[in-house]
Task: structure prediction
Amino acid sequence: MEFTLKEKLMLATKYRKYVESSNHSYKLSGKSLVILPDNDIAFKMAQLFSVRAKGEVYYLLKDSICNFYSNQIIQNSIQYTYNDINSLGLPRDIFVYKIRKHYFENIIDLNSNFSRFGAFLCLFSNSKVRMGFNYDNSKKYYNVILDSNYQQDLEGTFKMIKHFIDI
Result:
């Protein structure tokens, strides 16, 4: 998705404070945040992570669909509403600070299509590993890019993620 000139200027002025080097790597806790998309694959992927992951895993869920998940996943989730998203589709400052307070070491964006909210949240989170699928300009947002062929193969996706991080 391409930004207009107006959106690029707004991004450059408003969000440059997140991209500047604010190092809090000494506080990283080993926790992981999985950004779940809004489709049926997300339910299966969340179940796979809750069963197979050994580390401390949290999930980012939209509050309108959290009733479809199990109680175990809801207890380990951070929920967001439409109030946490600004007019450009990006996370608001207060939500970014809420995520940064957790000091997640790994953030995994499982959106198979470009999601401004998920991609920019990964970028602004200042985590050690920012992982997402390959699409146009994904190198700007993620430092580990997953092959898009694994999007439908849940086991393969989990193995690929486990290959890069200890989860």
